């Protein structure tokens, strides 16, 4: 009753001993089957006056066969003295007020529910008096497209004149060109229904005039005017009936193993996780993470120690939340098989009572996503990005002497060669994921793909259902070959020639990790710069040998490129000197800017996105745009603050070193926004010549420096600047790696269903006790046909030599 933190029965004694707080409010909800009535059935459902707690209820038990009763009492430690509530006579007024306020408070998790922000739809003011033109328009049951741009997705039927037009473009790559809105502005026709959402139960209706989704009580009549019978319609995405759809449905069926009776799994390590609303990406990643022994030992093995040394508010402690989640998944307490008597009763009554297993990771998601513009939302996310976000948090919150994320870390050797002088440069960087490109040109079924494309175009022209999908079959060896081939380096400046030249870069493993994470780069941009997914099949091997990708370092006969930085051209005008110098050294990737601009974003916003993401490409910059679209200065010109004159006192003591001494303030701000200290951000940027990407890698490889104090900044600067490119240095300066042979065995993979990382669904398959198991949110079953060829992220563990 002091901190208002909640504890389970097994942890309440620990909290009392740790804090000395002795007054607790005990809340309990009883669930009972209703007493049968005289007719043999359950008594009629009535409002239960014994419910006063705003607790989450099990949706499977909200029928007429069950009833709830809430109980609340104060418990005084250490004697466990109980006082039932309400009890005005025995309790002081202040305590009574506090108890009443707690009991009547709304659950803190209501705001995190995916539908909590959706208010109940209201009937449109236009529904009753809507005028429909008698123009003879009849809408076919399939084959719809926008009458102005030929798009076939996100189509809306205007309920006044029957026009079929596209909606707005959305961040997840769906949408259109806004022709439905333009039509309303031209005609004033207010209501439209989204094609593909019409079912016998209703449809999605939008009012342009009221600017919100609405209900249309007369929707059946309004649709019948255009020849649409609601009773014959089913929910689809593109206007085809369910029995016409094969391509997209088959992917969902294959990955989720639909149509096959799967045996449920129970016990430790077989606990499901509730989907909190597009949180399947988190569920899939965390199930995989806690199947790894190093993470099990670090968090679940150290659980008593973590709990004992947790801060007074454990809800804000990363290690506590990881230990809590790991215990929930691995203890088996939340994954118990049904009692044999219950099964017999279900068979006799020919009914199925749901099993109440699994955990709800609400507190974990709330903490781990706090402050992150994407993961804190209820939108779907990229599982690969969340994996890296999690590794970042693990790195920054060490537990014990060893960091479990060390098992993923490896060094990449990058060999850059000047094509004209033939001289080379070797550098190393830290990475956690091996990203393999999809070698579409190596597909083994090209003839089938060509035939399928012809049939698809014919069906589209004739407005018929598309043929059954034919996926490109890509050999894994071709993806591996594409990874190892040299890549051209754009705007390469050769220190040997003192000029720009052609350059190529190849990547090799300077070390092999204990656990190898392989991402198949299925997500790309289409010709229209809309994010899309390559629907391909890659024959991923169960056993993988990449020893041939081991780095070799400088070879005999190779000559290194001189260690000379590109020249800085400073203009004569002193007013523009600082700005122009920085813009010259920044060198914004204009090709990425144009890619984003062609997607319809303001040019200045595109320039800022590319700049703030360190020229890492259009896809990364696109994510920045989505996260900052609502900011008032989103489309304002890029303003790079001058940084030459605002040097620290330590820098002033060394003399006026000017531009080379102080990193750009904007880059410092970006790193600080990620949760790092200012002095560490400045130190990392100085050590990497103001390269944002390398600065972040430098920080991640040195988590022990986070606790260093500000006075040590200038002393360490000299050493770090000299060793900026040497990441594998011996001693504490180098990253912690667990090198070994490059032979691996597959033990898990995460699969994605849908057209974009920002939509769809994730599941994971893990190999446990010699058999494959599918984890599909709360559902955990033995896998019959694990779809290894359609995964997105694969997890391999090293085979001992």
Automatic annotation (TrEMBL):
Organism (species): Anser cygnoides (Swan goose)
**Protein origin, superkingdom:** Eukaryota
The active site consists of: 280, 761
Domain annotation UBP-type: ranges: 122-230
Q: Which biological process, per GO, is one annotated for this protein?
A: proteolysis
Q: What is the lineage of its organism?
A: Eukaryota, Metazoa, Chordata, Craniata, Vertebrata
Keywords for this protein: Autophagy, Hydrolase, Metal-binding, Protease, Repeat, Thiol protease, Ubl conjugation pathway, Zinc, Zinc-finger
Q: Which PANTHER family match?
A: UBIQUITIN CARBOXYL-TERMINAL HYDROLASE, UBIQUITIN CARBOXYL-TERMINAL HYDROLASE 13
Task: Please report the stretch or stretches of sequence annotated as the UBA domain.
Answer: 587-628, 662-702
* Positions contributing to Zn(2+) binding: 146, 149, 166, 179
Query: According to its UniProt record, which reaction does this protein catalyse?
Result: Thiol-dependent hydrolysis of ester, thioester, amide, peptide and isopeptide bonds formed by the C-terminal Gly of ubiquitin (a 76-residue protein attached to proteins as an intracellular targeting signal)
List the EC numbers from the record: 3.4.19.12
Q: What is this protein called?
A: Ubiquitin carboxyl-terminal hydrolase
Q: What one GO molecular function would you report for this record?
A: zinc ion binding
Q: Which InterPro entries match?
A: Papain-like_cys_pep_sf (IPR038765), Peptidase_C19_UCH (IPR001394), Ub_carboxyl-term_hydrolase (IPR050185), UBA (IPR015940), UBA-like_sf (IPR009060), Ubiquitinyl_hydrolase (IPR016652), UBP13_Znf-UBP_var (IPR041432), USP (IPR028889)
Family designation: Belongs to the peptidase C19 family.
Q: Where is the USP domain?
A: 271-799
One Pfam family of this chain:
UBA
């Amino acid at each position: 009753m002091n901190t208002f933190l909640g504890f389970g029965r097994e942890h309440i004694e620990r909290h009392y001993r740790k804090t000395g707080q002795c007054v607790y409010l005990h809340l309990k909800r009883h669930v009972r089957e209703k007493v049968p009535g005289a007719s043999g059935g359950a008594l009629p459902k009535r409002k239960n006056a014994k419910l006063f707690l705003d607790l989450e209820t099990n949706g499977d038990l909200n029928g007429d066969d069950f009833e709830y009763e809430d109980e609340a009492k104060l418990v005084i430690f250490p004697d466990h003295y109980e006082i039932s509530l309400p009890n005005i006579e025995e309790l002081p007024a202040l305590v009574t007020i506090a108890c009443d306020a707690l009991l009547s408070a709304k659950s803190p998790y209501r705001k995190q529910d995916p539908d909590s922000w959706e208010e109940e739809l209201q009937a449109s003011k236009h529904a009753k008096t809507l005028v429909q033109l008698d123009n003879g328009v009849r809408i076919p049951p399939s084959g719809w497209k926008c009458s102005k741009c030929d798009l076939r997705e996100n189509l809306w039927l205007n309920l006044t004149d029957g026009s079929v037009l596209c909606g707005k473009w959305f961040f997840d790559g769906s949408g259109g060109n806004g022709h439905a809105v333009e039509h309303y502005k031209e005609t004033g026709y207010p209501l439209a229904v989204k094609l593909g959402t019409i079912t016998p139960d209703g449809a999605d209706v939008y009012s342009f005039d009221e600017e919100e989704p609405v209900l249309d009580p007369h929707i059946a009549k309004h649709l019948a005017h255009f020849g649409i019978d609601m009773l014959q319609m089913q929910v689809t995405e593109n206007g085809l009936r369910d029995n016409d759809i094969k391509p997209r449905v088959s992917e969902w069926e294959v990955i989720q193993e639909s149509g096959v009776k799967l045996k449920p799994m129970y016990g430790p390590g077989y606990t499901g996780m509730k989907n909190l609303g597009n949180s399947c990406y988190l569920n899939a990643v965390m199930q995989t993470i806690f199947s790894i022994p190093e993470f099990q030992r670090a968090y679940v093995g150290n659980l008593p120690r973590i709990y004992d040394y947790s801060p007074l508010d454990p809800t804000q402690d990363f290690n506590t939340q990881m230990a809590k989640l790991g215990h929930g998944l691995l203890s088996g307490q939340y994954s118990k098989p049904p009692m044999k008597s219950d099964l017999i009763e279900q068979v006799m009554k020919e009914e199925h009572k749901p099993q109440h297993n699994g955990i709800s990771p609400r507190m974990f998601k709330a903490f781990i996503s706090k402050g992150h513009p994407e993961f804190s939302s209820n939108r779907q996310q990229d599982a690969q990005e969340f994996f890296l976000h999690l590794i970042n948090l693990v790195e920054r919150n060490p537990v014990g002497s060893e960091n479990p994320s060390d098992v993923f870390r490896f060094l990449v050797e990058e060999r850059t060669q000047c094509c004209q002088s033939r001289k080379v440069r070797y550098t190393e960087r830290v990475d956690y994921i091996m990203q393999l490109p999809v070698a579409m040109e190596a597909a083994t079924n090209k003839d089938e793909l060509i035939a399928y494309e012809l049939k698809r175009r014919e069906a589209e022209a004739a407005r018929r259902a598309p043929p059954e999908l034919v996926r490109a079959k890509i050999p894994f060896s071709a993806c591996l070959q594409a990874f190892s081939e040299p890549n051209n380096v754009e705007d390469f400046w050769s220190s040997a020639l003192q000029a720009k030249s052609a350059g190529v870069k190849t990547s090799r493993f300077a070390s092999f990790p204990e656990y190898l994470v392989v991402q198949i780069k299925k997500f790309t941009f289409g010709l229209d710069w809309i994010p899309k997914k390559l629907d391909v099949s890659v024959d991923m091997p169960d056993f993988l040998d990449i020893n041939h990708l081991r780095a070799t370092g400088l070879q005999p006969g190779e000559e290194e490129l001189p260690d000379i930085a590109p020249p800085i051209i400073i203009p004569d005008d002193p007013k523009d000197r600082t700005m122009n110098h920085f813009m010259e050294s920044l060198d914004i990737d204009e090709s990425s800017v144009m890619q984003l601009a062609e997607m319809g974003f303001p040019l200045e916003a595109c320039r800022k996105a590319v700049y703030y993401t360190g020229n890492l490409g259009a896809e990364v910059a696109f994510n920045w745009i989505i996260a900052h679209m609502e900011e008032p200065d989103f489309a304002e010109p890029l303003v790079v603050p001058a940084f030459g004159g605002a040097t620290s006192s330590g820098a002033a003591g060394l003399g006026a070193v000017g531009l080379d001494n102080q990193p750009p303030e904007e880059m410092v701000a970006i790193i600080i926004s990620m949760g790092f200290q200012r002095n560490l951000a400045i130190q990392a940027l100085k050590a990497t010549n103001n390269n944002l990407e390398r600065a972040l890698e430098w920080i991640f490889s040195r988590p022990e420096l986070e606790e260093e104090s500000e006075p040590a900044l200038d002393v360490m600067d000299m050493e770090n600047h000299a060793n900026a490119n040497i990441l594998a240095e011996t001693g504490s300066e180098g990253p912690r790696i667990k090198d070994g042979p490059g032979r691996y065995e597959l033990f898990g993979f995460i699969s994605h269903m849908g057209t974009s990382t920002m939509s769809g669904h994730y599941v994971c398959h893990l190999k446990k006790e010699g058999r494959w198991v599918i984890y599909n949110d709360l559902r955990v079953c033995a896998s019959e046909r694990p779809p290894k060829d359609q995964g997105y992220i694969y997890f391999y563990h090293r085979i001992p030599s």
